[in-house]
Design a protein that fits this description.
By secondary structure, the chain is of the alpha/beta class. The chain folds into 3 domains: about 1-30; about 35-155, Response regulator (Rossmann fold); about 155-195, no CATH class. It has helices at about 5-30, 50-65, 90-105, 115-130, 155-170, 185-195, and strands at about 35-40, 70-75, 75-85, 110, 130-135, 150. It has a 6-stranded mixed β-sheet with strand order 2-3-1-4-5-6, with helices on both faces. Strand 4 (about 110), helix 4 (about 115-130) and strand 5 form a beta-alpha-beta unit. Helix 3 (about 90-105) runs parallel beside helix 4 and helix 5 (about 155-170) crosses helix 6. The longest helix has 29 residues, at about 5-30. It is elongated.
Length: about 200
Amino acid sequence: MNSGFSLRLDRLRTTFTALLSTCLLTSALAQECEVKIGVAGPMAGGASAFGLAVKAGAEFEAAYANESGGLAMGNRKCKVMIYPFDAMYTAAGGAAASNYFASESIHVVVGPIGSPETTGFRPVVKRNGQINFSHSYMRDVISPEFPLAFHSLQAPVTWGPVLIKEAIGRFKFNSIIVIGPNDQGGTDRAALFGSRGKRYD
């Protein structure tokens, strides 16, 4: 056989093998899709019960979805992966959480939990284009300024005034005491319905 022809044939085989391997790898990657969900909250220290509980809830839901083959994404199912981050109940921790999730290509976040975390998280998450579901009790946890932020619960600023008014009407209280943490989650509710001398009749 002509040596030049043999060389060209060998090159053709090598090229074909490389192309076939690339196609198979691309197909495998397409089939093994993954949905990444971040969880931001305090994972250590005094407030860790909040963060660890939310993390456990997200992991439970991920395991439930994965048990049935994953989360439906178009015409396929993708494995759900949870990425927790200790936001340390601080503004700096909240900002760091958003940047960490961005580095991992995570676009959906459960949390932050505390108001200090949310304060640091919001401007960074807006820049990173991430959707988040916050548990914070701060009054403006959601606003037109942050259209990708959602509230995962109703805070005291929503139901507090209604509850106080009904309780006073039924039990004839003469006064109320508002107790809350020394952060925006506490000061907001105090300013809204706990100011001295405010009437609910």
